[in-house]
Amino acid sequence: MQYRTFGRLDFRPSALGFGAMRLPVQRGEDGKPDFKRIDDDLATAILHRAVDGGVNYVDTAWMYHEQSSETWLGRALQGGWRERVRLATKMPVWDVERPGDFDRILGVQLERLQTDHIDFYLLHSLDADHWRCVVEQGQLASAERALADGRIGHLGFSFHGTPEDFETILAATDLWEFVQIQYNYMDEEYQAGRRGLETAAAKGLGVIVMEPVRGGALAGSVPPQVQAVWDEAPVRRSPAEWALQWVWSHPQVSFLLSGMSTMEQVEQNLRAADASRPGLLTAEELALVARVRDLYRELSPVPCTACRYCMPCPQGVDIPGVFELYNDAHMYGNLARQQMAYRDFLADGERADSCTACGECVEKCPQGIAVPEWLERAQAFLAPC
Question: Half-sphere exposure of 217 toward its Cβ, with a 13 Å CA cutoff?
Fold first, then answer.
């Protein structure tokens, strides 16, 4: 296992961290996955193999899995395993609605995890709206008290907002010691992006990367034209390893998290982590990854750049969000996943069926996209009758 620096902290994290968001689940009587029930035995075996392979950072959250992954993890780390890892979980900032909620939730998390302290604690999924929750409910003061009395060791945040949101939050307090951002070769300019990565690292913060394989999309059903480019490389790597090594090649990255749900994924990721190092990919290999990125983007039917000039929509439609899901389904061949995201992650009124074809967005779009027509197609594709 390779170990890296973590900002200014005296901790050498493993290049590969264990993410407990996509644990293996049990199957129902019909043989289909039952996403409400973690397969405890397999999940625990996977975790223990990862730790034996050198992984020393385990990440979970209040909201991961309906059958709490925090509760599972508390059991799985008994018998000496807890002492071998640094433990991270997250505060659901949107659930803090009154004085005392922060401490109450943190107390439940400590009980679930069967520990008296959480090494690395994050305010979860910050964007403009969630940051407002943090500010209005005084959550930084609550976190500072938890730092002072030892319930948490270090404070950071995970992020899913705009670059401007990221810089605002980063500058808001000196309590931050690390950040967690989405970053992969398809999302280099998405959310915090490369600019956020470099800014946080320059401030001496540890930077954790989540979604390095874009939720598995970059390792799943690879289009033939994309595979043909990978096959040109002098060094043979799986599509998943190309994605991982691209992230690990950035010297500003402290480590990345992988949600491993099979033992095979653990073994593959451990081997990839052993081979990783900052600057591993050559200029020619980075150019090859850029060609793959361009090929994926050519598979996008809607030429939307998410510039958001079309927003706000008078009817409340999340136009860039709808187009992102529609394009992703075409690029990565994961229609079922995008249909689920369309149903579960876009609120009522944000989906394409709220469009009245008023045309205001068409006038604003610098790409000249026939937005109402594409929204109608996206609705039919992502929410079939």
Answer: 23
